[in-house]
Amino acid sequence: MHHHRTYISLHKPYPSYTSHLSSLSVQRLGFEDWTIIVDPMALVLHAGNTNKNGFKALIAAEYSGVKVELVKNFEMGVSNKSPKFLEMNPIGKVPVLETPDGPVFESNAIARYVTRLKADNPLFGSTLIEYAHVEQWIDFATLEIDANILRWLIPRIGFAVYLPPAEEAAISALKRALTALNTHLSSNTYLVGHSVTLADIIMACNLTLGFSRLLTKKFTSEFPHVERYFWTLVNQPNFRKILGEVKQAESVPSIQSAKKPSQAKEPTKPKDEPKKEAKKEPAKPKLEEAVAEEEAPKPKAKNSLDLLPPSKMILDEWKRLYSNTKTNFREVAVKGFWDMYDPEGYSLWFCDYKYNDENTVSFVTLNKVGGFLQRMDLARKYAFGKMLVIGSEPPFKVKGLWLFRGQEIPKFIIDECYDMELYDWRKVDITDEDQKERVNQMIEDQEPFEGEALLDAKCFK
GST N-terminal domain: which residues (predicted)? Predict the structure, then answer.
């Protein structure tokens, strides 16, 4: 039947699901009903050694006792464009598994194939319903988790057109998915049953991309059961053997600008990286190089503000006064602000969200503002802000007040925090008593504000 040496083991994983079949019907059935075990010789995975999609099959192989060899010296953008590779997958996508009976592409299909090589593999569960739930969570990990992580990350690092509303939609969809996952894991150690399944392997690999490059501790702390689940899995021996040590991202990558003088940096990054992850790094994907490159501009931009003439206003002293004032806020904190304020060294700005008509769901609007403040973390040394979400019913208005070092909005903030362009910005004229009073009201979260109730008031300090 095959040109390569194989043997076939027919077994019914779910007796209640299958009945006695003729040899002819066996040939017509795929892996859904019968396990076909291929002589596990020369299973070669074509992927880089940092490819999370390749990790799925490698971890499944560890649990299944199947030998899968990772191709040597794979270079993304070169190896996957070779004639041999394009014969296996004409569109050049990675990974591809080379088997004695021909190639398999698409990472979930490869992981399923490797898992099927072991008869009655517990990675597929032990009953028909458990098998269905494994497949359910594989789809969820792919369509709800992985897809939205990529929709958020890829444009940020310059591999797709960056559109702020699209990122907001991706973050909102990811949070929705993580909330559902968190709820499930609040009463379950694993996704299905009481041990690791293929669903956990695929979910963990997809989350690894998010945790290592995008999802900071501040972001994931909203989902404590997901955190517990993720760190438990990646520290299991079979996971750790393939993944190595996973470290959580400390910040969201800043937006990759259109300038691409990054070529000079590319040779140096791969040299630095191998020290951290030993031999895993020679095939480092360009994706990670792009993330690493983005860290460089930050110190230069911040240094430019440090070169301004000294200011009599000590920003940390104002932040302490704001935080410690619990009563008589107008008399203590607001008055203290104007006593400290240095109009030569600092400037005040009003901002108004441009797309308030889209703010029809309260939690999405609050998440939008929370995300903005999180991404403003790079400016903490040079800024103080108040963001008000206004209205008792949708659409909600978002308005803000910001104090920045210098007379203009710092350029590095405009360059690196995309949210800035979602707002109209207007410099406060402190000689105008009406504008000054509006500043006072925003600092103290006065309600009603401009005749409307406050849904929420957030502070950046």
Answer: 41-122
Euclidean distance between CA atoms 84 and 60, whole angstroms: 26
Q: Is residue 415 part of a domain?
A: yes
Distance from chain centroid for Cα 286: 17
Residue span of the structural domain in which 38 resides: 23-119
- Clarify whether residues 319 and 454 are in a common domain: yes
CB 85 within 8 A of CB 30: no
For strand 102-105 and strand 397-405, is the pairing parallel, antiparallel, or unpaired? unpaired
User: Which of 224, 256, 288 represents a domain boundary (last residue)?
Assistant: 256
For the entire predicted model, the pTM comes to 0.52
Q: Positive or negative CA dihedral for 272, 278, 281, 287?
A: negative
Q: pLDDT tens digits, residue range 371-430?
A: 899 889 889 999 999 999 999 999 999 999 999 999 999 998 988 888 899 999 999 999
304, amino acid identity? S
Contacts of 244 (CB under 8 A, 6+ apart): 277, 278, 280
Burial of 324 (C-beta count, 10 Å sphere; 0-12/13-18/19+): exposed
Last residue of a domain, one of 95, 119, 143: 119
CA-atom Rg of the chain in angstroms: 27
Q: Which positions ≥6 away from 101 have C-beta within 8 Å?
A: 2, 4, 6, 38
Mean pLDDT of 315-319: 94
Is the model's pLDDT at 82 over the cut of 80? yes
pLDDT at 279 over 80: no
Cα gap 369→433, rounded to integer Å: 28
pLDDT digits (tens, 9 = 90+) for 19-77: 333 333 333 334 444 444 445 457 999 998 889 999 999 999 999 999 999 988 888 88
Q: Is 112 in the same domain as 139?
A: no
Q: Which of 85, 54, 250, 259 is nearest to 158 (CA)?
A: 259
What is the 3-state composition of the chain as percent helix, strand, coil, each rounded to the nearest 5?
A: 50, 10, 40
Q: Given a cut of 50, is residue 294 above it in pLDDT? A: no
Residues 160 and 103 in one domain: no
Q: Tokens representing 134?
A: 């494994």
